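ok so I'm stuck.
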Amino acid sequence: MENTAEVIVSIIGLLLGGTGIGTFFTWRYQKKKAKAEAAEAETTAAKELQDLYQQMLADAKTDREDRLAQNEELRKERDRYKNDRNELRDQVEKLQEDISKWRQAGEEERLALKRQISQLEVRVDKMTPFMCGNLECKLRQLVVISDIVDGSKRGKRKKDIEPLEQSDIQ
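replied:
not stuck anymore, here's the structure
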């Protein structure tokens, strides 16, 4: 049994001793390998992060350029609309001025026509003694011109003008 106990102890010692040394070296190797992998992972992550930042900067630059172009287009469109508005405002002002001139001219013409009508009324009043109801008559007979107009739109009728009798003249 001694052999067996000795064998068992040597096997256990071998296992523990050999395994312990192997485990120690394996453990150090694994630790270095893990550090190297971690460093590589950090490097890869840093590169990915740097790529991401560069992509974000490129996107931001593109967006900024797009916004600047869009702002410029909006400014041009705004200026065009301002010019259109100013032109329309000028046209409206010109039209208002023309309308006021036309109104004034119409009012002046209306007043001139009123004056002319009153002058013609005075002439007709002065001419009534020389009017005759009979067109074939050489003697002038006074005629009464009626101011009453019938409801029709034709104006005075022929019957509204009546010759005066000789008795009416005196």
